[in-house]
Amino acid sequence: MLGSSFFIAARDLWHSIGNGNAPIVLDVRHRDVFANARDLIPAARWRAAGDVSVWAGALGQNRPIVVACKAGHDFSQAVAAHLRGNGLRASALEGGYAAWNAAALPLVDKPELDRIVPMRPSLWVTRRRPKLDRVACPWLIRRFLDVEARFLFVEPDQVTAVAHETGAVPFDITDVELSHEGGRCTFDTMLKLFGLEGEPSLARLALIVRGADTARPDLAAEAAGLHAVALGLSALSGDDDPGLLERGFMVYDALFAWLRFAADERHNWPARA
Predict the structure, then answer these.
(1) What's the pLDDT at 3?
(2) Is the pLDDT of residue 272 over 90?
(3) For the chain, which residues make up each domain, given as ranges?
(4) What is the model's pLDDT at position 271?
(5) What distance in Å separates the CA atoms of residue 65 and residue 3, rounded to the nearest whole number?
(6) What is the 3-state secondary structure (H, E, C) of the chain?
(7) Order of all β-strands in the sheet with 150-154
(8) Could you say which of 3.40.250.10, 3.40.640.10, 3.40.50.300, 3.30.565.10 is the CATH number of the domain covering 7-105?
(9) Mean pLDDT across the chain, nearest whole number?
(10) What does the alpha-carbon distance between residue 24 and residue 30 come to, in Å, rounded to a whole number?
(11) Residue 241 contacts by C-beta under 8 Å, 6 or more apart in sequence?
(12) 77 vs 269, which has greater pLDDT?
């Protein structure tokens, strides 16, 4: 079980990322190393290893924790040991970032993330009554960029003003960086910007989202189904945009898990013995 062993392999950690039950990933590389780093393990948040006794109490005990440093040596092991001593399900990433890179696993473009959201937890704003792209993008943000991100949904003509007033990052409206590019969706734009478009399952998911969001069901067989489910969730949710995100995230968790682990599974009737 994740969190019961002192070490976790890089590929096992990657397989656990991308859903609502993913572990808390703590990057404890030295402050200068982290500040100058080009890459970030998806969903990782930085913490100062020397201050573990200060911030450990805020982690809670409902999710396992994985601690990552440069090579899996003293920083991550010391922090993991401290957290385990506090009764938390903490593991050290075996081999640290070096092992993650050796396994060629996905990484977030940290300079771009720092440019777009220099302060985290981050705040984002878009049009209210989300259906497709405006659910897929928050899912991507929460699962791979900033697990503590918050989202504001306002009238379309107020997005820019609210962004200016609050410092929130505007997305999926015209004339902003994080929006559609030609026939590609904001979800595509974010994958490209943050260095994640090369991950095969995310790339396939982007095709499904694009087909559903731009009335191109020919792009992916699953696009029509996603379109129907998204509009159904919207009809059920009304003006409850936060509630719609919660329900919609389960849809994208399931789609991503299917693409990664179950896309080759077939069903038929009568069932084989």
Answers:
(1) 57
(2) no
(3) 7-105, 110-262
(4) 76
(5) 6
(6) CCCCCCEECHHHHHHHCCCCCCCEEEECCCHHHHHHCCEECCCCEECCHHHHHHHHHHCCCCCCEEEECCCCCHHHHHHHHHHHHCCCCEEEECCHHHHHHHCCCCCEEHHHHHHHCCCCCCEEEEECCCCCHHHHHHHHHHHHHCCCCEEEEECHHHHHHHHHHHCCEECCCCCCCCCCECCECHHHHHHHHCCCCCCHHHHHHHHHHHHHHCCCHHHCCCHHHHHHHHHHHHHHHCCCHHHHHHHHHHHHHHHHHHHHHHCCCCCCCCCCC
(7) 150-154, 123-127, 169-170
(8) 3.40.250.10
(9) 96
(10) 19
(11) 128, 129, 130, 151, 153
(12) 77
Q: Do residues 131 and 231 touch, judged by C-beta distance below 8 A?
A: yes
Whole-structure pTM value: 0.95
Q: Which two tokens stand for residue 132?
A: 């497709």
Length of the chain: 273
Q: How far apart are the first and last CA of the chain?
A: 31
